[in-house]
Design goal:
mainly beta, 4-stranded antiparallel sheet, about 0% helix, globular
């Protein structure tokens, strides 16, 4: 089992950058594929990006490709989301998620979730 705690959200202007972090508890962090999802008000939770257990494979949603970068540090039990060139449409609560095994893009395939961190991008 793993517990996830996100941090790094905030209020920024369009074009700015933010770096989100997700700290995981437990000694088996490297056994989990990790992902970031987001949920805007009135919308369903949507996939943003995923990274495999070693960090060598990533997959991005088209809406963030080229602007966001996911990485992980297995020694620190942490996954990061570097968000550049932020747009107002990136405004959402961002959630970190973990699943044992391979990467996936579907919400229902992830077993563990953080509490979320708010990202607000003003125009």
């Amino acid at each position: 089992q793993v517990q996830l705690v996100e941090s790094g959200g905030g209020l920024v202007q369009a074009g700015d950058s933010l770096r989100l972090s997700c700290a995981a508890s437990g000694r088996t962090f490297s056994s989990y594929a990790m992902a970031w999802f987001r949920q805007a008000p009135g919308k369903e939770r949507e996939f943003v990006v995923t990274i495999n257990r070693s960090g060598g494979i990533t997959y991005y949603a088209d809406s963030v490709k080229g602007r966001f970068t996911i990485s992980r540090d297995n020694a620190k039990n942490t996954v990061y989301l570097q968000m550049n060139s932020l747009k107002p449409e990136d405004t959402a609560v961002y959630y970190c998620a973990a699943r044992a095994g391979l990467t996936a893009a579907a919400v229902n395939l992830y077993d563990y979730w953080g509490q979320g961190t708010q990202v607000t991008v003003s125009s």
